[in-house]
Every structure is written in structure tokens, then in C-alpha cells.
Amino acid sequence: MDLQKHHKATFDNIAPEKRERIISAATAEFALKGFENANINNIAKKADVSVGSLYKYFENKQDMFLTIIHYSIATMEDMLNELLESDEDILLKVEHIIRTIQQYSKENVLIVKLYNVMTSENNPRFASQFAFEMESMTARIYRTAIERGKKAGDVREDIDSAFAAYLLDNIFMNLQFSYACDYYRERLKIYTGNDTPEKDDFVVEQCLKFIKSALKK
Amino acid sequence: MDLQKHHKATFDNIAPEKRERIISAATAEFALKGFENANINNIAKKADVSVGSLYKYFENKQDMFLTIIHYSIATMEDMLNELLESDEDILLKVEHIIRTIQQYSKENVLIVKLYNVMTSENNPRFASQFAFEMESMTARIYRTAIERGKKAGDVREDIDSAFAAYLLDNIFMNLQFSYACDYYRERLKIYTGNDTPEKDDFVVEQCLKFIKSALKK
Amino acid sequence: MDLQKHHKATFDNIAPEKRERIISAATAEFALKGFENANINNIAKKADVSVGSLYKYFENKQDMFLTIIHYSIATMEDMLNELLESDEDILLKVEHIIRTIQQYSKENVLIVKLYNVMTSENNPRFASQFAFEMESMTARIYRTAIERGKKAGDVREDIDSAFAAYLLDNIFMNLQFSYACDYYRERLKIYTGNDTPEKDDFVVEQCLKFIKSALKK
Amino acid sequence: MDLQKHHKATFDNIAPEKRERIISAATAEFALKGFENANINNIAKKADVSVGSLYKYFENKQDMFLTIIHYSIATMEDMLNELLESDEDILLKVEHIIRTIQQYSKENVLIVKLYNVMTSENNPRFASQFAFEMESMTARIYRTAIERGKKAGDVREDIDSAFAAYLLDNIFMNLQFSYACDYYRERLKIYTGNDTPEKDDFVVEQCLKFIKSALKK
DNA sequence: AATGAATGAGCATTCATTCAT
DNA sequence: TATGAATGAATGCTCATTCAT
Question: How far apart are CA C137 and CA C50, in angstroms?
Fold first, then answer.
């Protein structure tokens, strides 16, 4: 699980506050404009750092992007870690997950947008690395929870745990995008009405009914 | 449901074979590089048409993109129309949908990629238009099927039809991307193993189990 | 005084009404945008003629421009012919000229603008031809009038008739531009106040005082 | 009289020698080809500067043009300043002006051409700004001189000072163009003979006779 | 003779990356 | 280590001109 760094050693040595400024400026730029359209000079300006410095920290634009993605994934992992550790029953855990997604997506719009941008980068290299960094954790969380549910007798045994985890994540991932990304938000509204993004409890309730029934014995 | 054209009248008048060449070259370019990075001169070259001609057919790059999206959506709608009309039982319909997605995604990789690219365009205007063109049809198909299922007594009545349709589409949409887009394919493999993309029947079976159970009385 | 044609014979053979449409559309385009920025396809559209036809009538853009200039000069000559023939005393003639300029410039803004555009074309070939077509007539009119004035004892003899004619035309030419061209109009206002372009009698009176005194014995 | 800058601060900070190269290359390009037809890449090449740099100094082509005009006007103002300050009698001043025009026009052909180009830009915005920058100074100089002449008893009082200044400038402006611009030079020759542009003293003498008589009591 | 679709060279502008200070 | 001016290849779009019908 040791992932390679995409930045030069220098980036680790600068003042944390400066590093933070760079990460934050770059996250915004990449999230709002996508990889190709992001502008390095712009990032430098927003972060109040010289372009020259950025190129001291990162080999090139791509490495900068990778680094930023990496940081984003790390913050999402922080969010997930708590879920991982909690010892709840599967259905409680699902509710917990959905509510966490709702809160996190609203508070970290840029990071979710960035994640969304990343999912449509057309680059097999990027893709497998991103996917690995991003999904292996959630895959493990969901599968573990399902397997525990099976042992506890809460989840049917005739379903493939890994595949069920995948299906759950399909739902969760789109839900997350529905709170932070233009297209997905519109889509949610088209399906279920303009006010749905604000009706958190309704969303939780409906998801729970669906998933509970899908998994239960 | 009559959607505005984004191309000039001239584009309707050229030889169908030429139109096809342009659509195909542009679809590939936009699907593989995204809107910003797509290169008009490249498209012209690939389509064996002059740039000047392209600008006789389309006001500008954006209109070209919109037209291409429009065509993509139209072919997806053709695929969906048959599903719409079939009078199957909801569960048969779900199987039908999944198998159609599998086949279509493999045969029309570029169109699915383009759809994926479109979902992460960070442009509220585009977003709502795309979403409307793309999703209103599937939303209707799924909701209608669910409502019929309720009447037929096959589907539980305690679930919101529109929201259930949304959840189904979350699953289907990601499934579709999993067959055509780098990130999503990697993700499927991480969740369920490297050979899953080839195991069509397994995918159908697992999805069916999950969804059937989620919806049934 | 026989000036070469700049158009093909075909242009002489088309319906006069069509020819008129072309001249009028091209005059507007060249006058408003200058030679380089004028758009042939635009002219064709405005004149309701095909581009192909235009190229049947004119070898190229430059010849079209020359033809249009030629027509403009011809209409200005019509205006001047009457002045030429009148047998007035020099000072009456000057007043006559100024009033004619005022009226003509307001009624034929585009032609005057075109004349102005022409005077700053940086092309020695054009220049000498234009200048010859345009100025030889006025030069003759003014010089003749001055010489007659000398004979009649109204005009001092210690001044070079040709040079005096040139100085008069400096005044008249700028006056003409002041009624039709942006820069010159602003300039007139800066010198003499914002309402001067509307005070025709004032302009006539002041010009007359100046010129009368400049020429008189 | 403080006029806004049209360039970025960076342009003020570069080496004067480099700035000079850019101004000179751009002046030539705009003077010889007009605004629309001037080529930025060409200017960069001639000035031995990268295009990128030019765009660091100027927002866009138009601002570059405005800056160049501004510089041109500034050099013309330098020429005029000396006239402004001299305390000569009006008729001496007129001679002084004409001789200055003759010398300046021959030494600064490009700047005069540029001024000429500027006078036929068909853009009301440009026009009023240019006119203001360019003419308000000469207007003041001429009018002041005329008014002083009136007080000194050298100039008739029955003529409007501002309008007389305008008429003088009509003569001077065309005279200036006659030394530097194709059309105007041809015109001068047509009126007064091919050798006139070289006969400086003759021109001075004739202008003086005309103007002196026009203004005198 | 008339049409107007097609051509493709040409130009304004952007931006990742370098390097002298 | 940090800076930010400089670079120049790359790209969207225009338009004079041609030519098949």
C-alpha cells in the first residue's frame, strides 16, 4: 500500500503553511478546470508562490496533478477511516456512510469535484493508480462489513460480497457526485425533483430501504 | 422533447457519408481528449475535411461538441427505445437493460467515453442541458417500469418510484462506464477481480440478485 | 481623362439594378471596414449575389476596391461638375463649394468615408492613381477659378494659383471629412465646440472670411 | 492631460533599449499596414522579442496599438512644445510651424504615416480618444497664438479664434501628410508640380502669403 | 452565366517550462 | 532556495479564392 510520491523532496521541506497554500490553490484549479485546462501560472499566483518554485517542487504539471490527487485521496481516507473502525452493524454502517457522504460532499466540494475530474481522465496509467489509491480502501471497508453481516446473519449469503460492495459503491459514488458536481446534481433533480439535494433525511431513508432490502436475508 | 440544434443548416445538407466521417472523427477526439484538449485541426484531418468546412457546419468548437454529444445521446436513445417499448416484467426488464449495457458499451466505447467526459464538464450550462437530454429518458423508462411493477404487485410500494429509478441508474451508469472508461474499469477489477469485465453472465446474475431483492415486495 | 477599368467586361453587362446592389454593398463594406478588413463573402451576401459571381466581375478583392473607388469618385465628380460650369465670381464659388460639401457629406457619408479610407492606403500604386482620378478635377476647378479671379482683379496676383488651389483644397478636404469621418468630426469639435457640425452657416461664414481675406488683393 | 496607459506595468520595467526596439518595430508595422493588417508575430520578430513577451507587456493587439499611438503622439508633442513656448509674433510662429512640419515629417515618416492611419480608423471610441490626445494641444497652441495676435493688433478681430485655429490646422495637417503619406504626396504633386515636395522654401513662402493675408487686419 | 461549398494558409493569443539573477 | 521574465510551439478561427455543378 506504499504509494510512490509524485513530488520532489523539496516539497516536503517547505513550511507547512506554504505547502498548504499550494495544495489548496492547485486543488481549486484542477477541480474547477480539469487537468488540461488548469493553469500553472495561475496556481502560482493564487498560492502566492513563484512558478519557478513550483517547478522546484514538481517535475511537471502532471506530477503536480498526481500529488494533488494524492492529497485529496488522503483526506477522503481520513473520512473513511472512522467508518472502517466503527464496529456497527451493516445497516447502521450504511446509514453512517450516507450521512458522512452528505456532510463531506457539502464541506469539501472541491475535493469531490477533483475526484470526479479524475474519474474521466483518459489515461490508463493514471487510471489504475488513481483507482488503486482511491478504491482499494472503500472496497475493503464495504466488503468487510458485508462479510461480517453474513456471519452475523444479517446479510444473505447467496450474494458475492465483493460484487455487492461494488454495487454499493456505485450508489455511494454517484450520490457523492450528486452533492458536488454540476452534471450529477442536475441528474438527481431530474430523477427526483429540484428539492432533493436539500432533503437529506429523505435521501437517507430511501437509500436505506433500497439497500437494506437488497442485502437482507 | 425536441431539442435545439447546435449546428448550422449546412451540416444537414452534406453527403451522409461525409457527415458520418465528421461525427466519427469528432466523437473520437472529444471522447479521448475531453472538450478543451480536443483539436479542431486534428478532427478536420481525421475526417478528411478542411477546417474551413467544419466552421461552415458549426459556429465554433463548443457547438461542434454539443452536436457530437447530441448525436451520442441520440444513439443511446435508440438503444433505450427498444427497452422502453418492451412490455416486460420489471425484473426481466432489468436483465434486458444490463445485457444491453454490456453489449452497447463494448461496441460503442467512444460514445460511452464521451458520455463520461461530459459528466465531468465543469460548466453548469452544459450540465443541465446534457443532463436533461441524457437522463430524462432513462428516468422515465425506469420510473414507469417501477410503477407498473407496483401495480402488478411485483414491486414493494413503500419505496419512492423516482428515487428508486435514480438508484437503479446509479448502478447502471457506473456499470456502463465500467465497460468503457479507464478509471471505472480499474475500479471494477479492484472490487471484484481482474476477470470480471469478461464475465458477463456473472455480472448479470449478481446485479439481478441485488436489484430484485431491493425492489421486491 | 480616360481611366482604365478595374473590372471585367461582364460587370458592364449585368442588369443595372444588380450592379447597383453590388456597388452599394461594397461601398458600405469598404467604407466601414477599410480595404483589408472588408469581407468579400459579406459583400456577396449583402448584395444578394454569389461570391462566384463577384469573381466573375472582378479579378480579385483589390480590383473590386478600385472599381468601387472609381464609382465613388465618379459621383463626387458629378457634384463637382456643376461647380466647374457655374460662372460665378471666385468668392461666390467658394461659398457654393462649402455649402455643396456640407450637403453632400451628410447625404453621402459612406462615399466620403471611403474617400477617407483611400487616402490612407499605404500603396504607392493605388495612391497615384487615386490621387489622379480624384484630385485632378478639383485642382483644375480651383486653379481656374483663381486665375479667373486674378484676371477679374478680385484675387491678388502675388500668389501661385496652383498652390493656392492646393491650400484651398486642404481646407475643403478636411472640412468634408469633418462631416463624415469619426476622427475628423471629433477634431472639429475639439477645436471649435461640440455643436459646430450642426452650425452650417457659422462654418460657411468663418471659412469665407478666412479665404476671402487670404485671396483678396 | 494625464492620459491612461494602455500597457501593463511590465513594459515600463524592461530595458529602455528593448522597449525602444519594440516601439520602433510596432510603429513601422502599424504605420505601413494599418491596425487590422499588422502582424504581431512579425513585430515580435522584427523587435527580436518573443510573442509571449509582447503579451506580457500588452493585454492584446489593440492595447499595443494604443500604446504605440500614444508614443507617437508624445513625440509629436515634444516637437510642438517648443513651438508652444516660443514667444514669437503669430506670423513668425506660422513660419516656424511650417518649417518644423517639413523637417519633422521627413525625419519621422513612420510616425506621420501612423498618425494618418489613425485618422481613418473607423472606430468612434478610438477616434475621440485619439483626437483628444492629438489635437487638444495643437488647438490650444494655435488658438492662443491667434488670440495674442489679436491683442497685439496683428490679427483681425472679426474672426473666431477657435475656428481660425481649425482652418490653420487643416492646412498644416494636410501639409504634414503631404510629406509622408503616399496619397497626399501625389495630391500635392498634382496640384503644384512634381518637384514641390523638395521646394521647401517655396512651400513656406506660399503658405505664409496665404495665411498672413487670411489673418491680418 | 451563376452558384456556394470547399479550401488551407494565416494570425491573435495562451501557457508549460526554463534559466539568469 | 526563490524568483518571474522570457520563450515559442500550439490552436481556434477567418476569409480570399477556386471550381464542380
Answer: 36
Structurally, chain D folds into a number of domains equal to: 1
Name, in order, each residue with C-beta under 8 angstroms of B195's C-beta and a sequence gap of 6 or more.
Answer: none
**Residue ranges of A 122-151 with Cβ closer than 8 A to chain B:** 122-124, 126-128, 130-132, 134-136, 139, 143
What does the alpha-carbon distance between residue C153 and residue C146 come to, in Å, rounded to a whole number? 10
Amino acid present at B153: G
**Residue B214 burial by CB count (10 A; 0-12/13-18/19+): exposed, middle or buried?**
buried
Which positions on strand E lie below 7 Å from a protein C-beta?
A: 1-20
Q: Say which residue the cell 402488478 belongs to.
A: B152
Decide if D138 is inside a domain. yes
The CATH number linked to B102 is 1.10.357
SS3 D155: strand
pTM of the model: 0.89
Contact B209 A162 (CB under 8 A): no
CB-CB neighbours of B120 under 10 Å: 22
Which amino acid, residue B131?
A
**pLDDT given for residue B6 in this prediction:** 86
Whether D51 is covered by a domain: the verdict is: no
Chain mean pLDDT for chain B: 91
- CA dihedral sign, ordered D45, D50, D55, D56: negative
Residue D8: φ, ψ to 5°? -80, 165
Q: Which nucleotide is nearest to C51 (CA to C1')?
A: E4
DSSP lists the bridge partners of residue B216 as B155
D120: domain range? 68-215
Please name the residue that has the C-alpha cell 472640412: C175
User: Residue B39 has which C-alpha cell?
Assistant: 483539436
- Residue by residue, DSSP assigns B33-68 as HHHHH--HHHHHHHHT--HHHHHHH-SSHHHHHHHH
Question: Is residue D116 within 8 Å of D180, Cβ to Cβ?
Answer: yes
Q: Is residue A174 within 8 Å of residue B170, measured between CB atoms?
A: yes
D198 touches chain C (CB under 8 A): no
CA A94/CA A149 separation, integer angstroms: 12
| B92 three-class SS | helix
Q: Which cell is B101 given? A: 449495457
Residue of A nearest to B211 (CA): A214
CA C153 to chain centre: 30
Check residue C77 and give its pLDDT.
84
Which is it for the CA torsion C181, C187, C189, C192, positive or negative?
negative
* H/E segment holding residue B12: helix B9-13
> What is the dihedral angle through the alpha carbons of D11, D17, D23, D29, rounded to the nearest 10 degrees?
-130
Quote the radius of gyration of chain B (alpha carbons, Å).
19
Residue pLDDT, tens place only, D184-197 = 999 999 999 999 99
> So what's the pLDDT on residue A130?
84
Q: Which one, of D133, D214, D130, lies nearest residue D168 by Cα?
A: D214
Residue B10 makes CB contacts below 8 A (sequence gap 6+) with: B56, B57
Please name the amino acid found at residue B94.
V
Per-residue pLDDT for D34 more than 60? yes
Residue D36 lies in a domain: no
Q: Which residues sit opposite B155 in a β-bridge?
A: B216
What counts of helices (H) and strands (E) characterise chain C?
A: 11, 0
Contacts of A122 in chain B (CB under 8 A): 31-34, 113, 117, 181-182
Classify residue A46: in a domain, yes or no. Answer: no
- Could you give the CA distance from residue A185 to residue A153 in angstroms, rounded to a whole number? 36
Contact A167 B32 (CB under 8 A): no
Residues forming beta bridges with residue C155, ordered by sequence position = C216
pLDDT digit string, tens, across residues C104-140: 999 999 999 999 999 998 888 778 888 888 888 889 8
Checking each nucleotide's C1' against the CA of D40, the nearest proves to be E12
Enumerate the residues of chain D whose CB falls inside 8 A of the CB of residue C123: 182
